[in-house]
Structure formats: C-alpha cells, structure tokens
Amino acid sequence: MPELISSFSSLMIWAAVGYLLGSVPFGLIVARAMNLGDLRQIGSGNIGATNVLRTGNKRAAALTLLLDGGKGAVAVLLARWLAQEDAAQMAALGAFLGHCFPVWLAFKGGKGVATLLGILLALAPSVGLAAIATWLVVAAIFRFSSLAALAAAGFAPVWGVFLGHGQLFVLGIVLAILIYLRHWQNIARLRAGTETRIGQKG
Question: Could you give the CA distance from residue 6 to residue 11 in angstroms, rounded to a whole number?
C-alpha cells in the first residue's frame, strides 16, 4: 500500500470521483451509437468489450475497450495530479466499482477487465503492460477471453512486486478477487467446457 497521506474525507471524495467516472457505460453507449441494439439483450448481456465483439463489430469492440480502460486511467491520473498516490489508488478502486456496479444501470455493469488494465497502466505502466501481455498470451493460446482476464488479474499483484511496485500489491489483490467474483459464471462454464471462445457470437 502507498503511504496514507490524504485525509479520510479526501480519500472518500476521490473514491466517489472514480466511481462516477467508472460508472459511465461506454459499451452500452457505443453499441447504441453504432445501431447495434441494446447490448444487454445481446450475447451474455454484459456491457463490456467482449460482448460488443459478439455483435460482429470489431470497431465498436475496440472503441469500448479503449474507453473502458481510459476511464480507469483518467480517474487515477486525475487523482494523482490533484492529490496524492493514496488518493490515486482510491480513485482506481472507485472507478473499478463504478464500472462493475453503475448506479445508472441498477448496479448491473461489466466485469471490469478493461478498466482494470487501464488502472494498472496509469498506476504503473510496466505492471499494466505485463498484465496486458499476460492477457494476450493466454487469449492467443486458449481463445477464451475470460480465462485470459482471470490470468491477467491473478498475476497483476505478482507483476507489481516483481517489477518494483509493491505498493500496488494490496489493491491488486482486491481487484483480482473482484474480477474472480465477477467471473464466477465464466469459471463454471470453463470447467464445464461450455465457455464461448473469442470471436464466437453468443
């Protein structure tokens, strides 16, 4: 963990700012803007980039990926610029929770993978790149987005320590646990052999 410098009220404010940024449902917005329909009625019903890809529109999926990752990064960089590193981590957690549990969608949001990667890139670029590389390698070998996400999230705290960013370890563990909880249905399908592969329409 970083040294706690900011006041409790300041940390809560940055958590709220992060939550509001993270709660913007870019997947839903992009799908509607490109006339792809209501993303919640397509494929898995998730509002993330993987489900957008199931519409067959790669441009929309890529845009959703960038925006969902970007909102996490913006939350971190804004807090770091205007406050302290402890506030940046609180903003990161808030952004992740905002994406997963947006108040605008009755707290039914995405699974947080792109937002996690954006957060890691902003907090420590080397850790973020290592997590992205983990995702890409696992996805290329096994063709399961969910498995790649689980691997990237699970290894993120390890990469943090290995690459000299031990202050990210606690946050990394918390985010990894949340990622695994958000993917419990995917884990069940992976074990049953019924999980949808990358590029396959749901």
Answer: 6
